[in-house]
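Quick one, probably user error.
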């Protein structure tokens, strides 16, 4: 069962004022990241050209400022600290690895993302899971179809239901064909996953489906 359930004004990015006669490539920058305050340099923020963070502080970018004139980023500030520490010194986080990984993905800090993906906390939950789902043909497309069918059905109600058919091999697929046609003739919403060649655990597949749908903001 599935049920559907401002930032301050923008100004051009400005460099900190430097007294005449004192040149610097990395003026000091004060940041407000989701209510957490940080002080760093433009050189640190731009350390990885091509990253989203570097782009946010490029000379052509427009930045949001808070009431005190600090650059404002509307993200969770708690996990920005480890991102900043990595850019400063290359130090890897030792706590809150999944949360820091998520923020590294948002800011597109690719070297940090790769290092975090080698950590057990991320490898088992993210990398190995992706490899698992690659063995299920059409997984993402079928998941999208499930959500689309459920949303259409939920227009006139607060919840909807979609039947999920999991077929592990060609034999199961053939055995289910008549039942699927009958359900579709009765206007039932049905999405079929499989067949697949690898040895997959059905419970693991269902867990992945639940997690991915809930990640989109729906209740299962």
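Nope, works fine. Designed sequence:
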């Amino acid at each position: 069962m599935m049920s559907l359930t401002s930032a301050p004004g923008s100004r051009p990015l400005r460099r900190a004022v430097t007294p005449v006669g004192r040149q610097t490539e990395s003026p000091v920058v004060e940041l407000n990241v989701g209510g957490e305050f940080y002080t760093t340099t433009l050189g640190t923020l731009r350390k990885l050209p091509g990253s989203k963070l570097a782009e946010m502080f490029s000379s052509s970018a427009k930045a949001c400022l808070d009431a005190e004139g600090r650059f404002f980023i509307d993200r969770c500030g708690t996990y920005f600290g480890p991102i900043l520490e990595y850019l400063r010194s290359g130090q890897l986080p030792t706590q809150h690895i999944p949360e820091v990984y998520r923020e590294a993905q948002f800011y597109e800090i690719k070297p940090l993302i790769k290092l975090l993906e080698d950590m057990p906390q991320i490898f088992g939950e993210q990398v190995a899971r992706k490899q698992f789902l690659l063995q299920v043909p059409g997984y993402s497309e079928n998941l999208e179809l499930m959500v689309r069918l459920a949303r259409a059905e939920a227009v006139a109600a607060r919840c909807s239901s979609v039947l999920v058919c999991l077929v592990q091999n060609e034999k199961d697929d053939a055995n289910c064909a008549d039942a699927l046609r009958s359900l579709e003739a009765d206007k039932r919403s049905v999405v079929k996953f499989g067949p697949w060649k690898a040895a997959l655990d059905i419970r693991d597949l269902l867990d992945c489906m639940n997690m991915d749908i809930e990640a989109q903001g729906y209740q299962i």
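The CA atoms of residues 46 and 54 lie 4 Å apart.
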